[in-house]
Amino acid sequence: MSDMQAILIRGGRVIDPYRQIDSHDEDVWVVEGRVAKAPPTGADVMEVDARGLWVLPRLIDMHVHFRDPGQTWKETIETGSRAAAHGGIGAVATMPNTVPVTDTPELVEWVKNRGEAVGLVRIFPIGAVTVGSQGEELADLFRLKQAGARAFSDDGLPVASSRMMRAALTYSRDLERVIINHAEDRSLTDGASVHEGLAAHRLGLPAAPETAEAMMVWRDVLLAGLTGGWLHLAHVSARESLEALSYARQHQYRVTAEAAPHHLLLNDEALLRWQYDSVTKVNPPLRPESSRQALLKALKQGLVNVVASDHAPHHLDEKALPYVQAPFGISGLETILSALITALIEPGLMTALDAWALMTTGPDQVLGLHSQGLAEGEPADLTLINPTRKWQVDPAAFYSLGHNTPLAGMKLTGQAVATMVGGRWTMREGEVAYAGLSEIS
Ligand code: NCD
Q1: Which of 24, 108, 369, 432 suits a disulfide with 364, CB 3.0-4.6 Å?
Q2: 262 and 192 in a common domain
Q3: 123 and 69 within one domain
Q4: Is the pTM of this model over 0.90?
Q5: How confident is the model at residue 438 (pLDDT cuts 50, 70, 90)?
Q6: What domain range includes position 316?
Q7: Is the Cβ atom of 283 under 6 angstroms away from ligand 1?
Q8: Residues involved in catalysis
């Protein structure tokens, strides 16, 4: 075949945590949607000059809310996919707090198929742990797995009953799928909007202590020990949660955890800056500086092995409600990559190779994807990053329908300049490819 197309990505710094490679000497060939060693003879070669850029294997954001089905004024699978491509993200795991809750095999398949039809990002659906995420009856985890669920979570809500969590963790072991818990003792957080600290006090906002998170993290860790189950803790933010993770590691429990970028970049003093603007309202809430420092340290130590956005888009009208009534959530897909560079790599806290593991091998392991990064023969999923470009966050430029972020106006370092999925460019220089297969539903 003489008119075969090949893409050569030349001269970049290839950072591949799967193969532990950080090299200026590796060029990447893409042939028929896969990474190749060399082009077939006579191929039509398109060269991409990647000098000065970082070349990374598929970046995974394993915690996003696409609101589809049911709340498509907040986000759809299509708009969320566009936001992912724009943010340099090649794969996402979608939380099941849709309407209805993604708790049946049919819904899991629907989310997966819709994601494939849009075709801009790989979508790994997460199924609910309990029916309707009501915490009363275990969902049919086996059939959810068969339908393609990569993990289980009632995110947005904790699995409150210890007995239910014990059962779920027991299944996780046999099903080889992780249980992701949103750890929060709701009897302590009920009615709270923010972290219980000085900023909350000054503004007179209802608040809850971070102990509410840590208590359930400890419970979950102990249950992981009891069951031998597979636990992943969503968006850990409390200092004492990290101590539980350290305990889990000492005892070699199968426990992993993620941090959200807003908890890395901001503390609760952001509330004083934004006053009663609900862009700072997120669950778990922005924490004090001491917790932020502890979280950064836990990332460096490998106690927290994933960074995920908790992309939680809401409509402007909803976020414009009075602070206490506004929904929790930050739209994070289009800033996560830069937040990771700004919080971890730029200040020299972690090497680029270790930091990018948090969005590649880390989530890959939690979701059981078994990818090999940019090894020959793998699907050509990659992201090109300009690591030194400084830019100011402007939510009006987001592809997401949610423009709610307290990072608005902040200067971040590093930006994705191209995203490729399966050998196709889904974004180049900020322009997202048209999702040709999708219809507006
Ligand atoms: C999440 C959402 O909006 O779905 N919001 C958030 O602030 N993280 C759910 C949740 O975890 O509360």
Answers
A1: 369
A2: yes
A3: yes
A4: yes
A5: very low
A6: 58-367
A7: yes
A8: 310
